[in-house]
Amino acid sequence: MIRDIFSRNRKKKYATIPNDASKSDVPEGIMTKCPECKHIGLTKDLLKNKKVCPTCEHHYKMTAYERVDIILDEGTFVSMDDHLGTVNPLNFPGYTDKIKSDSEKTGLNEAVLTGNGLLDGRKVVVAIMDAHFRMGSMGSVVGEKITRAIEDATKQRIPFIIFTASGGARMQEGVLSLMQMAKTSVALKRHSEKGHLFISILTHPTTGGVSASFASIGDINLAEPKALIGFAGRRVIEQTVREKLPENFQTSEFLLAHGQLDAVVHRSSMKETVSTLVKLHSKGDK
């Protein structure tokens, strides 16, 4: 009897959700949580801020097309070599299906988007790697597209600019993937011998064979803040040298302090910085 009285008088201190509530009532993707500081904000505001967290300035990964929108003059980009397709030379199980899936998801034919465009009115050729496609790994088509883009820039006698984002060489293509390190580097050497500018911009992450080849041999090497840049993994290096590495090891700031970068540039200043460099190295003609 007494228990019943107390039960009736006890007030609920929590809210209940009706059983018929549907998850679809809340639109997906409307909010984004920062993986660094855990700040939660409107996704549309994050996009307006060039995908940089307004609280801790964490630089989110960008798609290749998002990068085009913030670096080149509006409506001037013309892509090239979109017809090239990846094959499965080693008959690696499931490889073709994964390529097809990533292509449908990203709208790209491979992990790099190449093309011509204007940067504050000046002609440039760009290559933009996209980590959303096979983690930006470098296969034969990625190497071929970058090489063709470099050769196009050399032919037009204009600067070549690359944004790197990669997990390294693509194991599903074996030595054919590793060959791209040499092929792209040779094309860049020929570009340099003609006296043309090459700017490399390393974004998070740039690792493996990509970091050991074209990503690190720019006339000017830039990077976004706190980007992971390196060849082998941290644990592999620590086990090899038998030493504990610094906390900021393989970050863009660490590389800058040790002379491996020319500057670390915030995304909000990237277009202005690159445009200034192109202007300084041009002969005055657009």
Automatic annotation (TrEMBL):
One of its GO terms (molecular function) is zinc ion binding. GO terms for cellular component: acetyl-CoA carboxylase complex. Keywords: ATP-binding, Cytoplasm, Fatty acid biosynthesis, Fatty acid metabolism, Ligase, Lipid biosynthesis, Lipid metabolism, Metal-binding, Nucleotide-binding, Transferase, Zinc, Zinc-finger. It is found in: Cytoplasm. It is an enzyme of class 2 (transferase). Its EC number is 2.1.3.15. One of its GO terms (biological process) is fatty acid biosynthetic process. Zn(2+) binds at C34, C37, C53, C56. Its cofactor is Zn(2+). A zinc finger (C4-type) spans 34-56. Acetyl-CoA carboxylase is a heterohexamer composed of biotin carboxyl carrier protein (AccB), biotin carboxylase (AccC) and two subunits each of ACCase subunit alpha (AccA) and ACCase subunit beta (AccD). Component of the acetyl coenzyme A carboxylase (ACC) complex. Biotin carboxylase (BC) catalyzes the carboxylation of biotin on its carrier protein (BCCP) and then the CO(2) group is transferred by the transcarboxylase to acetyl-CoA to form malonyl-CoA. Belongs to the AccD/PCCB family. NCBIfam families: accD. This is Acetyl-coenzyme A carboxylase carboxyl transferase subunit beta. The gene is accD.
